[in-house]
Amino acid sequence: MLTHRTEAEKLLERREQEALSLPPFSEIVRGGILTRYRRCGKPTCHCATTKGHGPSHYLQVTIKPGKTEQILLSEDMLPVAQRWVDNYQRWWEALEKVSEVNRQLIRLRAAELSGDKETTGKKSGRAKAQSKARGSEK
Ligand SMILES: [Zn+2]
After folding, report:
1. Where residue 129 falls among pLDDT bands split at 50, 70, 90?
2. Comparing 82 with 4, which gets the higher pLDDT?
3. Residue 36 is part of which domain span?
């Protein structure tokens, strides 16, 4: 019981930390940064023997299987897009981490509910409210 509570507290703390470390939700974009060099085709141009003209940076996003979109990024937008791409990744990772924490909390809570015989009035009240909510969904 006590171990459950301490473990739950640790999990809640981890969840809190995760939430606090997140960047603003409005500053995210799915995709990746693509860097390209281009050859203009003139045989005498320096690009024929070097990497080519560039680099040019694009935000590349897969819209659906087989369909990608590329948006050319200006010098100003490159760091912004890069940050938003990173932020998207961090939100995604946070979703997974918090989900894992909550899975463990659900397990702990389930263990508490099934093992704990000193059920308080509060708890049974909550259980009643939950079954009522479930019933209203139908
Ligand atoms: Zn060239």
Report:
1. very low
2. 82
3. 2-137
